[in-house]
Amino acid sequence: MDFSLTEEHIMIRDAARDFAQTELLPGVIERDNAQTFPDELVKKMGALGFMGIMVDPKYGGSGMDAISYVLIMEELSKIDASASVMVSVNNSLVCYGLETYGTEEQKQKYLTKLASGESIGAFCLSEPEAGSDATSQKTTAIDKGDHYVINGTKNWITNGGRSDVYLVIAQTDRDKAHKGINAFIVEKGTPGFDIGPKEDKLGIRGSDTHTLQFNDVKVPKENRIGEDGFGFKFAMKTLSGGRIGIAAQALGIAAGAYELALKYSKERKAFGTEICNHQAIAFKLADMYTEIEAARMLVMKAAWDKDQGNNYDMSSAMAKLYASKVAMEQTVEAVQIHGGNGFVKEYHVERMMRDAKITQIYEGTSEIQKIVISRGVIKG
Ligand SMILES: Cc1cc2nc3c(=O)[nH]c(=O)nc-3n(C[C@H](O)[C@H](O)[C@H](O)COP(=O)(O)OP(=O)(O)OC[C@H]3O[C@@H](n4cnc5c(N)ncnc54)[C@H](O)[C@@H]3O)c2cc1C
């Protein structure tokens, strides 16, 4: 057992930390207010290799491991969780999905641009009536010989307005239930494919979230991913890795809020001393640090499982369940330590508290993680 990071990991972490401090921190409050995230910043993340962290360099990626991925995710999330969710979706859901299950032609055509940050991707599973219960897909893809015709609605899609490539999950044969589901690559601008208005959200407001409409959208057969009927398995396998990214995002939000709270507690005075000298505050800091370290262990273990080629369905679910709980609880504590200043935007922790909530909802709610974990536990 070795808990230390390699020199390369430390270099990667420091590069992400430096980028977050110099490029993401300026304007993060304004971006949250305006619900925007400039394309130039996405391009800069692409130039640093953050958009295709684990992708093979022959497809334009950085060829790094999952430990590097979570280190980068944590550092970006400490400052701006809106930036990190774009990175997470593009890496774990879109690039991973295409690299692992796509054809060579699909990789050449789409993955190389996605991994290098030249284009950006979205993962479209959720629907107004099919969230946790993803088998209840209403979106259909009818086989017309050399192409499919897609009809339906997808909602809550991250990167929904700014993507070039959309991986869309749809029902091709309702009688076959989850075995009648397929995944397709849909390009922006395909006739009949419309992007709805941006959602006005509680948190991760810089990240754009949209409803998408598909009205008789023709998709060539070569854009189906995997064998006929592979779509549900594709979504579940991909989301399992996605949860490692979101767990690392939650860890980063918690760690970012903790660092601010610690600093504040050493500066702010009450009753003649810095507030960290009051045991009530010192014990909060002790609990925060311990909880965050415990979350970090679970996140690292899930990433390590992925790197070792182990099954990571359970470890990623546990990491996401726990890290998201820690993020929610510890950002509330960070606001408390800031007192009144915690309640205003200038001090960042109120944004972090708002951002933390989504980590308990997307890529499978906490209740769904418990279903995954309990099934694994009972199966043994
Ligand atoms: C900001 C944001 C970004 C998102 N990005 C994407 C994206 O890029 N792509 C995408 O496809 N989706 C995305 N989603 C959708 C997200 O994954 C879903 O919201 C989530 O899976 C929950 O689905 P739902 O909202 O339909 O809630 P529901 O499934 O209706 O759940 C409502 C409540 O019931 C609980 N529940 C449901 N079933 C069970 C059960 N069997 N046992 C116990 N409790 C249960 C849930 O845990 C939850 O508390 C995003 C959502 C948001 C808010």
From TrEMBL:
Occurrences of domain Acyl-CoA dehydrogenase/oxidase N-terminal (ranges): 6-118
CDD domains named among the record's database cross-references: SCAD_SBCAD (cd01158)
Gene3D superfamilies given in the database record: Acyl-CoA dehydrogenase/oxidase, N-terminal domain, Butyryl-CoA Dehydrogenase, subunit A, domain 2, Butyryl-CoA Dehydrogenase, subunit A, domain 3
Domain named Acyl-CoA oxidase/dehydrogenase middle: residues: 122-217
Entry superkingdom: Bacteria
Cofactor: FAD
Keywords: FAD, Flavoprotein, Oxidoreductase
Start and end residues of each Acyl-CoA dehydrogenase/oxidase C-terminal domain: 231-377
Matching Pfam families: Acyl-CoA_dh_1, Acyl-CoA_dh_M, Acyl-CoA_dh_N
InterPro entries: Acyl-CoA_DH_CS (IPR006089), Acyl-CoA_Oxase/DH_mid-dom (IPR006091), Acyl-CoA_Oxase/DH_mid-dom_sf (IPR046373), AcylCo_DH-like_C (IPR036250), AcylCo_DH/oxidase_C (IPR009075), AcylCoA_DH/ox_N (IPR013786), AcylCoA_DH/ox_N_sf (IPR037069), AcylCoA_DH/oxidase_NM_dom_sf (IPR009100)
Record GO terms (molecular function): acyl-CoA dehydrogenase activity; flavin adenine dinucleotide binding
EC number(s) from the headed UniProt entry: 1.3.8.10
Stored PANTHER family: ACYL-COA DEHYDROGENASE (PTHR43884), ISOVALERYL-COA DEHYDROGENASE, MITOCHONDRIAL-RELATED (PTHR43884:SF12)
Family per record: Belongs to the acyl-CoA dehydrogenase family.
Protein name: Cyclohex-1-ene-1-carbonyl-CoA dehydrogenase
